[in-house]
């Protein structure tokens, strides 16, 4: 399948949020990536329900909600009601991950688990068949505009091999330091969904950058 592009709203201009949401609507982007940070799980606070609901009112594409929060279970239903199509929880924040994944499905959303850079993909073997997507963090979560951690490529390849056996339809999303420079390598490694904040919103034309990332032929890079 052709890879999907999910612009991260974290890098939008919050004083012109509707303008940036409309830009994504009109672009070739596939999803809105919505980063929720609680200042506890990660050393930053982004935004909460009022802002997410405002995005949902104008968004014409699915909301991919990345919860960087402790104890996400208590908010899953509310995020689903606020318009999340995909809900991502962190492996490191969920002692009862199987139950959490069940709650996401019961709330009517697709279930995704995120892995911090130090967390091995093999830890997901026994839950992989229950997931719709895995988010491989390619920076330490908390901030936009950080540098891509190269070891991520190997993690994606290992995860794709595991998924070929356990869940061939699994989507693999990558988040952090993603841009034109590493799009071909990420897609060749097995990623299907590319999140990008800074690379898109700091570009002279964000919507042209979205199109470039979307249409970059993965065959362009044979360097891995
Ligand atoms: C980081 C967030 C990312 C962030 C990506 O913790 O999860 O979604 O917005 O931003 P860039 O693409 O600028 O690294
Ligand atoms: Zn994110």
From TrEMBL:
Cofactor(s) annotated in UniProt: Zn(2+); Mn(2+); Fe(2+); a divalent metal cation
Residues reported in the UniProt entry to bind a divalent metal cation: 33, 35, 66, 175
InterPro entries per the UniProt record, alphabetical: Aldolase_TIM, Ribul_P_3_epim, Ribul_P_3_epim-like, RibuloseP-bd_barrel
GO cellular component, one term: cytoplasm
Function: Catalyzes the reversible epimerization of D-ribulose 5-phosphate to D-xylulose 5-phosphate.
Pfam families assigned: Ribul_P_3_epim
Annotated organism of origin: Pedobacter westerhofensis
Family, as annotated: Belongs to the ribulose-phosphate 3-epimerase family.
Binding site for substrate: 8, 66, 142-145, 175-177
Alphabetical keyword list: Carbohydrate metabolism, Cobalt, Isomerase, Manganese, Metal-binding, Zinc
Name this polypeptide is given: Ribulose-phosphate 3-epimerase
GO annotation terms (biological process): pentose catabolic process; pentose-phosphate shunt
């Amino acid at each position: 399948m052709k890879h999907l592009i999910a612009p991260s709203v974290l890098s939008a201009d919050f004083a012109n949020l509707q303008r940036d949401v409309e830009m994504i609507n009109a672009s070739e982007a596939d999803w809105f990536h919505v980063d929720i940070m609680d200042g506890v799980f990660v050393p930053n606070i982004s935004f909460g329900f009022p802002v997410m609901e405002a995005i949902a009112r104008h968004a014409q594409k699915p909301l991919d909600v990345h919860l960087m929060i402790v104890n996400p279970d208590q908010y899953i239903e509310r995020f689903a009601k606020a318009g999340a199509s995909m809900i991502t929880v962190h492996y490191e924040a969920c002692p009862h991950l199987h139950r959490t994944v069940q709650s996401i499905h019961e709330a009517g959303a697709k279930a995704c688990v995120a892995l911090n850079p130090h967390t091995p993909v093999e830890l997901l073997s026994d839950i992989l068949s229950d997931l719709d997507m895995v988010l491989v963090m390619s920076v330490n979560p908390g901030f936009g505009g950080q540098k891509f951690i190269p070891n991520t490529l190997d993690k994606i390849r290992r995860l794709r091999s595991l998924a070929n056996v356990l869940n061939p339809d699994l989507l693999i999303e990558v988040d952090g330091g993603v841009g034109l420079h590493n799009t071909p390598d990420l897609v060749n490694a097995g990623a299907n969904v590319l999140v990008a904040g800074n690379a898109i919103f700091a570009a002279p034309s964000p919507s042209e950058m979205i199109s470039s990332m979307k249409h970059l032929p993965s065959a362009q890079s044979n360097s891995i």
